[in-house]
Amino acid sequence: MQDFLELAVSATASGCVYGLVALAYLLMIRPTGIINFAVGEWAMVAAFGGHLLLSRYEWPYPVGMAVVIAFMLLVGWASERVAVRPLVEKGAPLLAPILALLGVLVITREVISVSFPPDPLPVPFPVEIQYYKYFVIAATAMVFAGFWFFFEKTLWGRTFEAVALNRRAAALMGINLSRVTAFSFAGGAAVAGLGGLLVSPNVSAHYLMGVPLAIQGFTALVIGGVGRVEGALIGGLLLAFAEQLTIRYAPIPSGFAQAVPLLFLMIFLIVRPTGLLRARA
Amino acid sequence: MRWLAAFVVLSGAAFLLGDYHNDVYRKMLLWVTLALGYNFLFGVCGQVAFSHFAFYGIGAYSVVILLFQLNVPLPLAIVLGVLVCIVVALAVAIPSTRLDGFYLALATLALAQLFVVVLNEGGSVTGGTGGIANYRLPAIFGMQIRGPWYTGVIVLVLLLTLWILMKLDRSWFGRACRAVRDNPEAAAAMGINVARTKVIAFTLTSALAGVAGMVYAFVDNTVNPPIFGLENAFLLLFMVIVGGSGRHAGAVIGAVLLFLLPFWLSPIVGHHHVLVFGVLMLAAILVQPKGLIAIWDRGRDRFSR
Amino acid sequence: MKKIIFAFLLATGIAHAQTIKIGVITDRVGVSKPYSEPATEGVVFGADEINRKGGVLGRKIELLIEDDQSRPDISAALARKLVDQGVVFILSVSLSPATQQQQTVTMEAKVPQMTPMNSADYLTTQLQNPYFWQTGPLGSTQGATLLAHAKSKNFKKVALITDNSDLGQAIGKAFKGALEKAGIEIVADEVVARGATTAMPQMQKIRAANPEAMFLAGVLTAENVLIFRAYKELGVKFPIHSSYNLSVPIYETVAKGFINSITFVDAYDPDKPEVKAFVAAYKKATGKDSQNLHGYGYDGIHLIADAIRRAGSTDKEKIREAMQKTDYAGVMGKKGMKYTFPEGKRAGFDPDGMVVRVYEKDKQGRVVHVGQK
Question: Does C254 sit within 8 Å of A208, measured CB to CB?
Answer without folding.
Answer: no
